[in-house]
Amino acid sequence: MMRSLLIRGMIAGLVAGLLSFVFARVFGEPAVGAAIAFEDRLTAAAGEEGGVELVSRGVQSTIGLAVALLLYGAAIGGILALVYAAVYGRVARLGPRATAGLVALVGFLAVVLVPFVKYPANPPASSSHETIGLRTGLYVLLVALSIALAVGAVLAARRLTVRFGWWNAVLIATGVYIVLVGLVGFLLPAMDETPADFPGTVLYDFRVASLGGQIVLWATLGIVFGALAEGSGARRSRSVGRSARTTPGPAV
Amino acid sequence: MTQAVAPAPVPAAIPLRELAPWALFAGVILLALLYLVGMDQGATSVVSGQMLHEFVHDGRHLLGFPCH
Ligand SMILES: [Zn+2]
Question: What interface predicted TM-score (ipTM) does this complex get?
């Protein structure tokens, strides 16, 4: 059961990684290329030699990008399957597809969108080399806190449902999550490193493409994993005559 | 629930005893994979050199991981 779910999660992740690769290749790479052109102009203006290229731009922007997104997709897909296994039948009275979609949605919000608001994706040559340690630490910290608060919000919504009904419970828990994660974002230091002459359109295009690629990835993951999970474990518990999909009862 | 004939059956949850070893074992491996794709040879290095970083470089930037 767990083995099959995990494999299905990773397969869904590979599909998601592949689709987001297509998106990133078409919409993201032009901005990455423009940022690296800006970097090359800076290097040339400073009269420095460009460093030795370990991996050519041609490889980075094709196979490298594909491998990165496929591995990321597979890893996220596997973790999604583990979370799904913990959540299914425990948090809400939802079928496999709805549970998978919900886990992917909450995952996207907590892991990608909320951290992005504070520490958005940055194109090459828009951050300082020296602060990589600080930026990595702050980013990991924010993602971890966001996940912890989201888990707390889900548990709170589950408890509050008994008293307020599931809709109000979800609203309250979401509101509390936003306030707390907003406080965390307010307390963490801002990183303001983009060079003044960095092209604004490149920064904008890059960030929109980055977010778009993540939306493609998590949406595909939720939909594909839902379909695959429905085909595995749910078959056993689905009773004849009524489908879990058509009667979403109150959350337990 | 007025329109439903009967309340939907509670889906059978996977026993935590069955889930725990998988969550621990696979969870660690998957997080390590995420770390290798997103962060290694950056702030911290497990694999020496810059090859891995350079190869997945564009993915790191577009996935939102801190890079250069
Ligand atoms: Zn970089």
Answer: 0.89
The total domain count for chain A is: 2
pLDDT at A121: 97
CB contact under 8 A, B66 and A136: yes
How many angstroms separate the CA of residue B2 from the nearest CA in chain A? 11
Choice between A159 and A250, residue whose per-residue pLDDT is larger? A159
A125: left (phi over 0), alpha (psi -120 to 50) or beta: left
Cβ contact A169:A155 at 8 Å:
no
CB A110 within 8 A of CB A146: yes
Q: What tens digit of pLDDT does each residue of B11-61 get?
A: 789 999 999 999 999 999 999 999 999 999 998 999 988 999 999 999 999
Same domain, A179 and A204: no
**Cα–Cα distance between A17 and A91 in angstroms, integer?**
28
Q: Which domain holds residue A116?
A: 1-48+55-126+198-252
- For chain A, helix (H) and strand (E) counts, in that order, are 10, 0
CB-based contact A121 B61, cutoff 8 Å: yes
- Residue B68 CA to ligand 1 center (angstroms) comes to 4
A242: tokens are: 């009524």
The Cα A117–Cα A140 span in angstroms is 14
A116 shares its domain with A234: yes
pLDDT at A47: 81
Whether pLDDT at A234 is above 70: no
Same domain, A143 and A252: no
| A218 vs B: CB within 8 A | no
> In whole angstroms, what is the distance from residue A186 CA to residue A83 CA?
29
Please tell me whether residues A160 and A182 are part of one structural domain. yes
